[in-house]
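Reply to dn_fold:

You asked what the input looked like. This is it:
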Amino acid sequence: MNASNFVEGVDLSLYVILGISVFFLIAITFVMIYFLFKYRKKNNPVATNIPHNTLLEIVWTVIPTILVLIMFWYGWIGYKPMLTAPSDAMEIEAVGQMWKWTFKYPDGKVSDSLVIPIDKPVKLNLKSIDVLHSLYIPAFRIKRDVVPGQDFMMWFTGQKLGTYDIFCAEYCGQLHSYMLSSCTVVSEDDYNNWLTSGPNLSNEHPGLTLLKTNACLSCHSRDGSRIIGPSFKGLIGRQEVIIRDGNREEIIVDEEYIAGKIKNPNTSEVETYQAGLMASYGDILSDDDIKNIIDYISTL
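and this is what came back:
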C-alpha cells in the first residue's frame, strides 16, 4: 500500500525518466569507447571530413523529441490530478512562518503537526505570514511553494497508517533546517478522538501556548541564550539599546514596549540584532493574547 494516492503516478514518471537516462548513459558511453578504438590515429592517420548526413541528423532530432514528449506525458499524468481537489475534501489551513508549520482545522483546533484520517481526501490551504516557504512531504510525493500574500493549495489522500516527515523545501532564513514537522495518518475513530480531545498543551500557561503556536520560540529563547532575537528570560525590566528612527536610544523594556513590538515590530530594532525579520502580529493576536504573552514572559 502506497503512503498517498500520488505515489504511483509520481514514481512511474521518475522510473521512466530514470530508465531512459540510464539507457543513454550506458549507450553513449559504450559508443564513445568504441569510437576511441575504431577511429584512433593508428587506424585513421588522415582524418576524414564528413560534412553532412541527412539521415543521421533526422534520427538525432526525431528520437530525442519523441523521448522528451514521452517523459513529458508521464510527468503530466502524474501531476495533473494534483491540480484539482475533490469537492468532499477536508480543508485544513497550513501556515508557514520562520521557522514553524501551523495547521488549523475546521473546528478551530490548532496544532504544530498535521493529523489526518486514513483514506480521506485532505486539502491544505497554504499561507505564509513572512517569507517564501515550501511544504514538502516526501513520502506522499507532494511539494508546493507557500508565498506571502498569495493563496495556494495542495491535496492528497493518506492511504497508509503512520507518521511522515514534513519539511520546508525553500531556504527561508537562518533556521530553515529546523522547520520540521510531521503528518500522522490515523484511523477515522482515532482522528475524531484526537480532534475532540482539546489542545495537547492545555496544562501550559496560555502565553506559552501562544508563543509556540506563533513560532515566537524559533527566534527568542527562554533560557537566556542568543538566537535570532533577544531572549525572553529577564526581558521585562532589562536595559536595552535600540535604534528608532535612525537614533540610538537606551530604554528599560516594559509591557508597553513589548506590546508595541508585537503589533509593529519594525518601528525599532534592538542593537546588534538583525532588523526586519519579525512579522507583524497586530492582525493575528488580540489584545488578550498579547496580555497573556506578556504575563508569561514576566515569569521568566
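The CA atoms of residues 67 and 275 lie 50 Å apart.
Hope that clears it up.
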